[in-house]
Batch of 2 targets.
Target 1
Amino acid sequence: MEEAKPVHDIDILLVDDEADFRVVIAKRLGRRGIRVHEAPGGEEALRLLEETPLDVVVMDIKMPGMSGIDALRRIKERHPVAEVILLTGHANTQDGVDGIKSGAFDYLSKPVELEHLIRKITQAHNKIGRFRSARQEAEFRERVKQQMVVAERLVALGTMASGVAHEINNPLAIIQDAAGWLRQILAKPEMEDMPRRGDFEKALDRIHNAVQRARVVTHQLLQVVRTQSTELSDPTRMRAVDLKQLVEESISLVESEAESKGIKILVESAEPPPSAWTDPYQLLQVLLNLLANSIQATGAGGRITIALRASLEEAKVEVNDTGSGISKENLNRIFEPFFTTKGVGEGTGMGLYVSWGIVSKLGGLIAVESQVGQGSTFTITLPVKR
Ligand SMILES: Nc1ncnc2c1ncn2[C@@H]1O[C@H](COP(=O)(O)OP(=O)(O)OP(=O)(O)O)[C@@H](O)[C@H]1O
Ligand SMILES: [Mg+2]
């Protein structure tokens, strides 16, 4: 009885000028779950690798046209992750040694012993797998490090700005009180005939509006900094939130504005719609800030797409727009308090700072990717479970 052989799940590229050899090997490897893509020579192999990313290449060293060694060098140059197993003639092991010097994973002499070949293929495949996960982990660590650098800077900036906000709050209150008092005086019957009364009233209105605007900003700043020190501001508002519903609610609040600018807003949701463990009121505020920015950055005929994704651990809300995009130097600063590229009265530069504060407090992350002239994507990542 034949022993049960393990079945693999691997795709390889077999490069050999002998069509019969390719057919036989492809058939035998195919029975063991190794899918074989074929190329008759180096040129074709390189072309195929451009279209179909294959990590393991099994290649004859002696081929008409481009030699196996040349093809190997070019494959390693363009696809450094790929591993190449060379097939050499029986009497030509020196070729194999040369191949290893040029970056081959290993060499086998023809005629190839099937089990041996399969073993080499799986070893190469596993090596690539290990390399990939190590790289992913390094990338993940780098991202976390960057987020921490951003967070530290924002906390420092926020602390400084909120110190100023705190100082300004008192004089603001005094200005508002005094303006109120003046208004009361103006309202008295004996003031009815006062010269230029209307001008005084207008000036008081301007003072009132300016104070209101300043108070919104100081309030926002203090809010972010204050909640930063507590774990979750109001744990009673945390719940499992249907993200699709919340996103649709946020859209309904900005839809008419978007429509009047000729911008379409679309929702793409995983099924079933993902949910997150979060505070819906706070998250709504973040969504509205992001939507407002996207609408402001996008012209007629533009599109905003909100995509919802989920895994076991986390849910993602991606807000993508086809707007102006953000330059590299600005990208590092957009989450800072008061950073704005908008004119006076159009933006205070608080939207993203407040959003960052809220999302971090909710135990999530907010990140941005953008290309000038193409658009921007803001991604909020939130925990799924309590
Ligand atoms: N979707 C986007 N597309 C292009 N630029 C953006 C986008 N979102 C943010 N920005 C840039 O980031 C800056 C900061 O955004 P933020 O929301 O913090 O402040 P603001 O929109 O300028 O003012 P506020 O939100 O306080 O009204 C913006 O001025 C803009 O330059
Ligand atoms: Mg904004």
Note: Residues 110 and 370 are 52 Å apart (CA to CA).
Target 2
Amino acid sequence: MLLPLLEFQTVSYTYPGASHPAIQNLSLAIFAEQKIVILGHNGCGKSTLLLLADGLYRCSSGVISWKEEPLRYHAPILNQWRQRIGLAFQDPEQQLVAATVAEDISYGLCNSSLSRAEVAQRLHQTLHDFSLQDLADRPLHHLSLGQKRRVALAGVMALQPELLLLDEPTAYLDRLQTHHLLAELDRIHASGTTIVMATHDLDLAYAWADWVIVLHEGQLVLSEPAQQVFAQVDVLNQLQLGMPTLLECWNALPATWRDRHSPPKTISELRSYWLNHLPR
Ligand SMILES: Nc1ncnc2c1ncn2[C@@H]1O[C@H](COP(=O)(O)OP(=O)(O)O)[C@@H](O)[C@H]1O
Ligand SMILES: [Mg+2]
């Protein structure tokens, strides 16, 4: 049987002083090699879940495990945990700590158990992988938000985590920057990293994910293959999440035309369906 990489078993978390738990009795499993989206309205607990998964918050009850090994909250174990699981915060300013791009990427590497030669090699490779060579010596405060995001992601990936957690990675990016980021994520995924992305962007989730976890008010509603989740129109409407634009266009076609066809994942799939099936 396939083992989950990361597992939550009846995990709850309440912020100090809060009257309600932000995460409540949540159980879920993350399997290797998937592109997973955590979907839900603002305030439903997505960021809290990622912070728990990275061991930055300690759950109030329940167990979080990596390959069936429960997380223990001791410094050396947490260090090792965070080398396997990398978290890119929603706000890159929270992540970036050094003066220049190269120094920032080196920072995490120097805090791991790598030799100086390995740190230099990883830095060189990471600058290359993220096309940051020309920005290596640039002060971080001279970068655009999109560039800061890229540097923050590069810093996380330099540690070669098995699981990458991304909190709203496309927030504040324009279309072109989003396109570049998704291409970067495809490259990271193709090189063997499992990715979990928290977002409230339904269109992004539909276009990118192969597995979708739906949260509502700190509780798990669905954890299923993406196609299955987006077929549950009633559940999505009940949660007021709505439908991805592409699916709404698809569902607006007469049912007899859609018969025996699975919904398109991209605009070009929809276009080629139209070209083949619309009466001329
Ligand atoms: N630092 C905090 N202190 C107290 N409550 C918080 C804090 N951060 C988030 N919350 C609350 O926890 C709940 C979940 O928040 P969050 O995980 O940020 O949701 P999301 O990322 O889905 O928008 C919300 O009700 C939010 O108000
Ligand atoms: Mg959030």
Note: The radius of gyration is 20 Å.
